[in-house]
Amino acid sequence: MQSSGPRDRGSRPAVTRSPTKGPLFNQIEPFSKKDRVVAALREAIVSGRMQPGDPIVESRVARQLGVGQPLVREALLDLEHQGFVQRVPYRGTSVTKLGPDEIDQIQRLRTELESLAIEWARARACAEDVSALRALVEEMRQAARASDLGRFNDCDLELHRRIWQLSGNKYLEDTLERAVVPLLTFFYLRSGRIGKLHVESVRHHEALVDALASGEPSVSGARAALQALQVQCGELTSVASD
Length: 242
Description:
Layout: H1 33-46, E1 55-56, H2 58-65, H3 69-82, E2 85-88, E3 92-95, H4 100-124, H5 127-145, H6 149-166, H7 170-191, H8 196-213, H9 220-241
Antiparallel strand pairs: 1-3, 2-3
Helix pairs in contact: 1-3, 2-3, 4-6, 4-7, 4-8, 4-9, 5-6, 5-8, 6-7, 7-9, 8-9
């Protein structure tokens, strides 16, 4: 019987490894697949690669993203809830496109409800909250100077969302989210690039924050700033249509 001594490692053929050019896999982000599909579609809309009114074919999106069609359908339901897409029976899904009447109705609703949100937020906001809002206004100003429309839009949405959250009323917050977010997205998609109206928008948003920070129990300052934004949005649509 042969003894089981140490094997001759030198008798093995050498293993040749191909040089590694880089990591085989990208790091996995801490988001579900559906969230990543939602983010990919929303980024395509906000960036302007998908224009208002463009149809969204579920099978095509699924093929391009390498996911199942049911996952795309779930993502589109989320985006519909957020106002980025419209689903019409027997006609399919498309990027949200707002007509003049729809814009007017949303603007009227926005002026009333966001004035109320600012009034309620005034009673709840602390100095840190106001500082955070002013920082977002400054970021909008810097984005306008850098002609960075995506960053400008992100800061704009974040500023409004923080005000709605500060109101302390989730129903008011949800209503404004559904109405105003697609409106703002639609306007910035139509504008296509930073212009004079975006620079003026920074001043109007600064006035909104001033109204929130004011100790006066009145919505007049907030309403005036919101009405100025309403007029500006109308001008923005007109410029984009030319």
